[in-house]
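Fill in residues.
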């Protein structure tokens, strides 16, 4: 990532639109304008510090499995454009995807327990349930929880991190990996 671009982990819930807007306004005041957003990262481009007013809209019927605009989103975008608003960014798929593994519950067993564990941790990303292939292929050497694996698009494990980290440490690790082609 060049010095004219910056990525930042997106710790906001998608429907917390006011908090997201205020955050983006603070970043614009520091000279970083939103360029791209996804579930996990904001991508900014360097600009002159400015007062920018952001409005964030959450569409609960949108899905990462169908990333095209819904009819309602298209209509809304048309109204916004007619009112003179400029689209700063729309949801985009990202090179970084976080996937959790619920290691306390085997696949096909207590689904309610798995869901309650995910809800309890407020981990708002997809989760896999433990099965034989995940256990033998990935988790046999896990000595502590949490253990984080950084895996590239080809399935190669780039790094393994044992233990929790703060936000800035995760950002530094993510940005330390080479850009995907």
């Amino acid at each position: 990532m060049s010095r004219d671009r910056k990525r930042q982990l997106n710790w906001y819930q998608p429907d917390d639109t006011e908090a997201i807007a205020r955050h983006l306004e603070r970043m614009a005041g520091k000279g970083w304008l939103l360029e791209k957003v996804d579930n996990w990262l904001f991508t900014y481009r360097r600009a002159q510090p400015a007062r920018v007013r952001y409005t964030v809209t959450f569409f609960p019927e949108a899905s990462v499995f169908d990333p095209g605009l819904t009819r309602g989103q298209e209509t809304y975008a048309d109204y916004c454009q007619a009112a003179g608003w400029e689209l700063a960014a729309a949801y985009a798929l990202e090179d970084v995807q976080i996937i959790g593994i619920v290691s306390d519950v085997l696949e096909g067993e207590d689904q309610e327990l798995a869901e309650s564990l995910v809800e309890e941790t407020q981990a708002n990303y997809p989760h896999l349930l433990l099965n034989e292939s995940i256990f033998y292929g990935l988790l046999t050497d896990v000595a502590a929880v949490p253990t984080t694996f950084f895996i590239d698009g080809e399935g190669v494990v780039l790094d393994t991190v044992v233990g929790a980290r703060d936000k800035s440490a995760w950002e530094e690790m993510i940005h330390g990996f080479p850009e995907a082609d």
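The chain is about 30% helix and 20% strand.
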